[in-house]
Design goal:
The complex is a heterodimer of chains A (344) and B (328).
Chain A (H helix, E strand, L loop, with lengths): L2 H18 L9 E6 L4 E6 L4 E7 L4 E6 L6 E5 L4 E5 L6 E6 L6 E4 L5 E6 L4 E6 L5 E6 L4 E6 L5 E6 L4 E6 L4 E7 L4 E6 L5 E6 L4 E6 L4 E7 L4 E6 L6 E6 L4 E6 L4 E7 L4 E6 L5 E6 L4 E6 L4 E7 L4 E5 L26
Antiparallel strand pairs in A: 1-2, 1-28, 2-3, 4-5, 5-6, 6-7, 8-9, 9-10, 10-11, 12-13, 13-14, 14-15, 16-17, 17-18, 18-19, 20-21, 21-22, 22-23, 24-25, 25-26, 26-27
Chain B lengths: L1 H25 L9 H28 L12 H11 L2 H23 L7 H4 L7 H25 L1 H11 L14 H18 L7 H13 L9 H4 L6 H7 L21 H5 L17 H4 L6 H21 L10
Helix pairs in contact in B: 1-2, 2-3, 2-9, 4-8, 6-7, 6-8, 7-14
Classes of the chains: A mainly beta (344), B mainly alpha (328).
Chain lengths: 344, 328
């Protein structure tokens, strides 16, 4: 392993440790929700279950991500071609970066070197230098490049290509698309297994997630979850289970990645889409695209604690805390602290 | 009040989506997932408008008509136009035709970096005033409509299509949607270009949107009722728009080249095309070829419009000097 790779791994580990050392009691009990059919984001008070503020952002904000150092929350506005950098605690704007074309999905490579976006409507993917957001490469990817995820070594980005029913692999070293494979109807969410040898892909046009074997580049298993299987999220402090939203079915399935089967299902109506977890990891906050709401689901009881009215077509959601799914550099599971806080 | 209506509307749309999206999924149309909400909203708005037409505008035409007709035979075909439009059939066909073009246009302009600043980027003060911002866009799109309408009356080949809207002798609340399908298609292409130039409103105030569309339908109502001599300078009313539908006569050969605005008469006032004399006039076109639309059904009118368009184009090629003006 090169010195640079060692340095980036150490930096990543230190960042993770620093994030975990944050006093969760000091976190404001809010959730930031992107209203994708508007030009706004809602700040939700998780305790009182109310929207306390609606802040204007660029047009059609869909997704968000933390910067590798965790200091900024990046909100991407697809139609205004801009990124908004926010204080992740207060949601106050720090800066705007223009001319990021159609940043639908976005992510930083785990080594913190690259910033990659998928231009869903414009059928290309962009690689930027993470430090100054300088465009390095634009690669066409037809059609509808949707979600993306990185390999842990930062060598690959895997994209779902919703319009052509494929998964594509972008080699970040060569900076080219190195392979594409057919996976099923309208693939969306994508997740790398902890062993880094397989991918789990949600098929929104079907009722299942499929396992893609990276060695054989083929689908090795189909797991029925529910109609409109969509986005996939690692469960809090648990590398072995993921949660997948089933938009059309109106549910979320919990998949055991070792058994490769659904171990639990939670009903959440209204087109459940993106999820983030409370600082104690006990509550999943889910955006309900069609109902203009976010729902708080207690994971232990599978009970919906309440819903909050927000803007039109709520999509991305962020909760400041150790279990957020918006972190580019994920903390190791053994460092998680599920008992330190009782916040929603 | 506005917020409650908006919330009520959002809840209704959400419930409908929960019924419709599984059907979209079932028929394998997942690529249209993101387009369904807008389509559904257009459809429900259309149904609401039909309800208002039936419950308010039609009774008003019977109670206080501007013109009395022996029968309403000529109106029947306009009902067909209204249903085809308000129930989303013509808009859906146009959407499917324009989708590839729209995508290509957007992909090209945005990839080459042609992204003009939005209104709120030019005036950041408007960012946290969504209602005001919506109204600004509403006004801008009304202006865009005014400009297009002037072109429909000024360019012979556009008038060949638009004269179908004016050929109706019995202008009623149903006449609003009486347009040639190609005319609608061209207008939507124009709107797509306008959307690239000025953007679209970021928020949605459905109450205002509905009000705007109802004003357009109301402006065609056959009634003496109007908004009065002050408010009719703010919003278009039937008296104002009937002048626009007036039959040209030797004394007023260009009477229909006035009052082009759809919602806000301010554009006619600014561009000096407003005509307020509160006179009752017959409606229709002073052109026997276009007037013959009155005996035809939907298909016949569509064919006749295409024939007129072909002739207008042929005339423009054959002789520039002989090019007729819409008033001829």
């Amino acid at each position: 392993m090169s010195c640079a790779r060692w340095a980036s791994l150490v930096a990543g580990a230190l960042t993770s440790a620093a994030l975990f050392a944050m006093p969760v009691q000091a976190l404001p009990e809010t959730a930031i929700v992107l209203n994708s059919d508007e030009a706004s984001m809602s700040v939700v008070d998780r305790q009182s279950m109310t929207e306390i503020e609606r802040i204007p952002v660029g047009r059609e904000p869909h997704h968000l991500i933390l910067t590798p150092d965790g200091k900024d929350l990046v909100v991407a506005s697809t139609v205004t071609n801009e990124l908004l950098f926010l204080d992740p605690v207060t949601a106050r704007e720090r800066k705007r970066v223009r001319n990021i074309v159609d940043p639908y999905q976005l992510g930083y490579s785990p080594d913190g070197k690259w910033f990659v976006t998928a231009a869903y409507r414009l059928n290309h993917v962009d690689i930027y230098e993470a430090k100054d957001l300088r465009l390095v490469k634009r690669l066409p990817l037809h059609s509808l490049p949707s979600h993306l995820t990185f390999s842990a070594d930062s060598n690959f980005v895997y994209f779902t290509v919703q319009g052509s029913n494929q998964v594509a692999a972008l080699d970040l070293v060569k900076q080219e698309i190195v392979w594409t494979i057919d996976v099923g109807e309208a693939p969306a969410g994508i997740h790398v297994f902890p062993d880094q040898k397989r991918l789990l892909v949600g098929l929104t046009g079907e009722d299942a997630a499929v396992v893609v074997d990276l060695a054989t580049r083929g689908v090795s298993k189909r797991i029925v979850t529910g109609k409109g299987a969509h986005n996939i999220f690692k469960m809090p402090a648990d590398d072995k289970r993921v949660l997948i939203t089933n938009r059309v079915e109106g549910s979320m399935s919990i998949i055991d990645l070792e058994k490769l089967e659904v171990v639990d299902t939670i009903k959440v109506a209204g087109g459940p889409d993106d999820v983030d977890f409370s600082p104690d990891g006990k509550i999943a906050w889910v955006t309900q695209r069609w109902r203009r709401r976010v729902a708080a689901v207690e994971l232990s009881t599978r009970r919906i604690l309440g819903t909050v009215l927000v803007g039109r077509s709520p999509h991305g959601i962020y909760i400041n805390g150790p279990h957020t799914v918006s972190r580019s550099v994920l903390p190791p599971p053994e460092r998680s602290d599920a008992t330190a806080a009782t916040k929603r | 009040m506005l917020e409650s209506l908006t919330n009520l509307w959002a809840d209704l749309q959400g419930r409908l989506l929960e019924i419709v999206q599984p059907l979209i999924h079932r028929f394998g149309l997942t690529e249209f997932y993101d387009d369904v909400p807008a389509g559904l909203e257009t459809l429900t708005l259309g149904i609401l408008q039909i309800a208002v037409i039936l419950l308010i505008f039609r009774p008003l035409e019977s109670l206080a008509p501007a013109q009395r007709w022996e029968n309403r035979k000529l109106v029947r075909v306009d009902v067909v136009y209204t249903l085809l439009n308000k129930l989303g059939i013509i808009p859906l066909a146009i959407f499917l035709i324009l989708l590839p073009l729209n995508d290509e246009l957007m992909e090209f302009t945005r990839t080459v970096g042609f992204v003009l600043p939005t209104v709120e980027q030019i005036i950041p003060w408007l960012r946290d005033k969504p209602l005001l911002l919506f109204l600004v866009y509403f006004l801008l799109y009304d202006l865009a409509g005014y400009i297009w309408h002037r072109a429909q009356h000024g360019l012979p080949w556009l008038w060949a299509l638009h004269s179908l809207h004016h050929s109706q002798r019995q202008v009623s609340t149903w006449t609003d949607d009486r347009n040639h399908v190609l005319d609608d298609l061209l207008f939507d292409i124009y709107l797509a270009i306008v959307a690239i130039l000025i953007g679209v409103q970021p928020g949605q105030f459905v109450a205002i949107l509905l009000l705007g569309r109802l004003i357009e339908a109301f402006s065609h109502v056959n009634t003496r009722f109007g908004f009065g001599r002050v408010l009719d300078k703010v919003l278009v009313d039937p008296m104002f728009h009937r002048t626009h539908h007036a039959l040209a006569n030797p004394a007023e050969p260009h009477i229909h080249d006035t009052n082009f605005s759809a919602v806000f008469p301010i554009w006619d006032i600014i561009f000096r095309t407003a005509h307020y004399d509160y006179k009752q006039r017959d409606s229709g076109v002073d052109d026997p070829v276009a007037d013959a639309d009155n005996g035809k059904g939907f298909i016949g009118q569509q064919i006749a419009g295409l024939v007129r368009l072909g002739r207008a184009i042929a005339r423009s090629f054959s002789s520039r000097s002989a090019r007729p003006t819409p008033a001829e």
